[in-house]
Design goal:
8 strands; binds zinc ion; 8-stranded mixed sheet; alpha/beta; 12% strand; 10 helices; Aminopeptidase
Length: 400
C-alpha cells in the first residue's frame, strides 16, 4: 500500500505516486509537481559545462521573483568563478541548509540535481514549496571544483577529474623550499607532463580559519586521519560560506567512483548514504545532537526512497565507516552541522536521469522533513539499520 497522505510530507514525486488522478490534476500539481514526477524521465541529460553554469544560475535567479540570488563566492585555483545561490537568509526560527556539489570534478550529477531543485524553488507556486521557502534558508554551492569539472585531455576533450588544478607552492605559506606537498596532491600528478592538483575533499579542517604558516613544515604531508590544510581556494571558499551561514545541515553530493560503469550492475546499489565520517578530534568533538540529526535525515531519505517501490531506484546502503576529518562533511560536522553524504552510482549514460531523480527525491524529502518537522520524529538509532555496503565497493577512502 502506497502512502496516501497528500504530498506525504514528501516531494511531488511521491505525491505523483500516491495521489489519485483527480488530485494530481489540481493546479498546484501541474505540470510537474513540486519537484519531479516519476513518469517525467530525465532523458539525454546534457551536463552543464562550466561556461554555461553562471548563465544558467543567473537565468533561474531572474525568473525567481526575488526568491533566489546568485553571487560569485570565490575563484578556483585557475580563476573560474565559484557560485553561491541563496534562497533566504539564516534567522532565528529558520532551519538552514547548505547543499554542495561536485567537490570532485568528475562527479557531475549533483550539480544537475541542484539546478533542477533551484528551478523548482525559484518558480513553483506549489504550497509545499512556499512552505519550504518560508521555513528554511537553503544555499547551494553548485560545482565547487570548477577546475576538475572542466579538466580536459591533451586533445581538448572534456574528461573532468577528481582534483583541481593547482601546484604545490610552499613559499606561498612561508614554508621552506622542499617541504613536501600535502598528501592529497597525488604523487603521480607531480610527475613531468602531469597537471598537479589537490583532492579538495581532504583539504578541510574543523579549524575553519586554519592556514599554514612559517614553522609548520613538520605538519606536512599529513595523513588522511588528520585535518587538511586549506591550501586550495575552493576549500577556503566553501568554508567561508559555511562560516557565513552556519547551517544546521550540510549535504555533499558525490559519485561512487568517477567514471562509467557497466549498465549491467544497474540493480546493484544505486546510492550510498552516510551520516558520520569522523568521531571528532580532541579540539573539535562531535556534537551528539548534530550526529543524531544527521542520522535522522539519512534514515528519512532511506525510508522515503524505499517507499517508492517500483521506482527504478535500486538498493540503498550505508557508506563504509571512515575517519576523515579533512573532508567538508567531517569538518562541518565538527562545527555543529548535521551531515549527509550522497554517493550515487557512477555515471552510466542510460541511468543518469534515474540517478538525478533519485538524488532530487532525496533532497526534496529532506527539505520537506525539515520544514514540517517530521524528521525530528525519526529514531536516530535506526541509522544502523541501513544495510552496510556490499563487497564490491572499493576503498572508501578513494570515493568520498
Ligand atoms: Zn566524491
Amino acid at each position: 500500500m502506497r502512502r496516501r497522505t497528500v504530498l506525504a510530507g514528501l516531494t511531488g514525486l511521491s505525491a505523483g505516486l500516491a495521489l489519485p488522478a483527480t488530485a494530481r490534476a489540481e493546479p498546484q500539481s501541474r505540470p510537474n509537481g513540486p519537484w519531479i514526477q516519476p513518469e517525467q524521465v530525465v532523458q539525454k541529460v546534457a551536463l552543464t559545462e562550466n561556461a554555461d553554469l553562471g548563465p544558467k544560475l543567473a537565468g533561474i535567479a531572474a525568473r525567481s521573483g526575488g526568491r533566489m540570488s546568485v553571487e560569485v563566492a570565490g575563484r578556483s585555483a585557475t580563476g573560474w568563478p565559484i557560485h553561491l545561490a541563496r534562497f533566504g537568509e539564516p534567522a532565528p526560527g529558520k532551519t538552514s541548509l547548505l547543499i554542495q556539489t561536485q567537490i570532485h570534478g568528475g562527479e557531475p550529477l549533483g550539480t544537475e540535481v541542484a539546478l533542477h531543485l533551484m528551478q523548482t524553488l525559484a518558480t513553483s507556486s506549489h504550497p509545499t514549496v512556499l512552505d519550504v521557502l518560508d521555513k528554511l534558508a537553503i544555499w547551494f554551492i553548485p560545482r565547487l571544483n570548477m577546475d576538475g569539472g572542466d579538466f580536459r585531455n591533451a586533445d581538448g576533450f572534456l574528461v573532468q577529474r577528481r582534483q583541481n588544478t593547482q601546484p604545490w607552492t610552499p613559499q606561498e605559506w612561508g614554508l621552506a623550499p622542499g617541504t613536501p606537498a600535502p598528501w592529497y596532491l597525488p604523487r603521480q600528478l607531480l610527475q613531468p607532463g602531469q597537471t598537479p592538483g589537490y583532492d579538495i575533499n581532504r583539504d578541510f579542517s574543523p579549524d575553519l580559519g586554519f592556514r599554514l604558516g612559517p614553522g609548520d613544515e613538520a605538519l606536512l604531508p599529513g595523513r588522511s586521519e588528520l585535518p587538511g590544510f586549506f591550501v586550495t581556494p575552493e576549500a577556503r571558499t566553501s568554508a567561508a560560506v559555511f562560516q557565513r551561514m552556519r547551517p544546521d545541515f550540510f549535504i555533499d553530493h558525490h559519485h561512487r567512483g568517477s567514471n562509467t560503469q557497466s549498465d549491467t550492475d544497474n540493480q546493484l546499489t544505486t546510492l550510498q548514504l552516510v551520516g558520520i565520517v569522523t568521531a571528532g578530534t580532541p579540539d573539535f568533538p562531535l556534537d551528539p545532537a548534530a550526529r543524531d540529526l544527521a542520522f535522522q535525515v539519512n534514515v528519512l531519505v532511506w525510508d522515503r526512497l524505499r517507499e517508492l517501490g517500483n521506482s527504478g531506484f535500486g538498493g540503498i546502503t550505508r557508506y563504509p565507516d571512515v575517519e576523515l576529518p579533512g573532508t567538508a562533511l567531517g569538518s562541518y560536522a565538527l562545527n555543529g552541522a548535521g551531515i549527509m553524504l550522497y554517493e550515487t552510482r557512477s555515471v552510466a549514460q542510460k541511468s543518469m536521469g534515474m540517478l538525478i531523480q533519485q538524488s532530487l527525491f532525496g533532497f526534496g524529502a529532506t527539505l520537506e522533513g525539515l520544514t514540517d518537522g517530521s524528521v525530528y520524529a525519526v529514531d536516530p538509532n535506526r541509522y544502523h539499520d541501513i544495510p552496510p555496503a556490499g563487497p564490491s565497493i572499493g576503498n572508501p577512502r578513494d570515493d568520498l
